[in-house]
Amino acid sequence: MTDILHRLSIDAPHDRAHELVATPPASRPGQPPALTEHVPTMKVTPEREEPALPDNIEIITRFEHAFRAADQATIDELCDPGLLDHNPAPGHEPTLAGFKQKVAGFNAVFADLAEDLQDIVASGDTVATRWVVTGTLQQEFMGIPATGQPIRVEGMNFYRLEDGRVTDIWTQFDGLGLMQQVGAIPA
User: Fold this and answer.
1) Which among 176, 165, 161 is positioned nearest to 79, based on CA atoms?
2) Annotated domain spans of the chain
3) How many CB atoms lie within 10 A of CB 77?
4) Nearest in space to 78 (alpha carbons), one of 89, 62, 65
5) CA–CA dist 172, 8 (Å, integer)
6) Where are the beta strands (DSSP E) in the chain?
7) Model pLDDT for residues 62-116, shown as the tens digit of each residue
8) Which CATH architecture has domain 54-181?
9) Residue 44 three-state SS
């Protein structure tokens, strides 16, 4: 990852000539990751010595916690009312309201949802996260009966922020793996 960031900081235009990476500490057994204890590290090119936006990393760390907890109030606080979800769930609008419905639905189906936020990378107004969620299927999911089947899904989110609020979200995750784990399709 350091090589990628180094290349990005060298090849980036002057207004994006800095990169910031924060990696949360490892989880303690039986406890969620302590995401607020991380210490960001910074790569700054010699031409520009202004720091990247550590506030954006803090905002997205809070946002990821809010997603995991289905904390609608914090999601409202951190999102622009005009939020655009570029990957809405089937049957959901690509709006803030649709995103909040997606969050509530996912957390109802996997009520014991836990997230291991593995990486956060920020550059300018964009923040990327890499994560693993685990849980058990506790309600019907897309016609699949609740079986208590455990899941483990890896994914990434990309966020764009403006004035300290999330304006855009892109989510990519292992949907095929999820469907195989809940028994919807053969492994």
Assistant:
1) 165
2) 54-181
3) 13
4) 62
5) 22
6) 18-22, 41-44, 79-85, 114-123, 126-136, 150-162, 165-173
7) 999 998 888 999 999 999 999 999 999 999 999 999 999 999 999 999 999 999 9
8) Roll (3.10)
9) strand
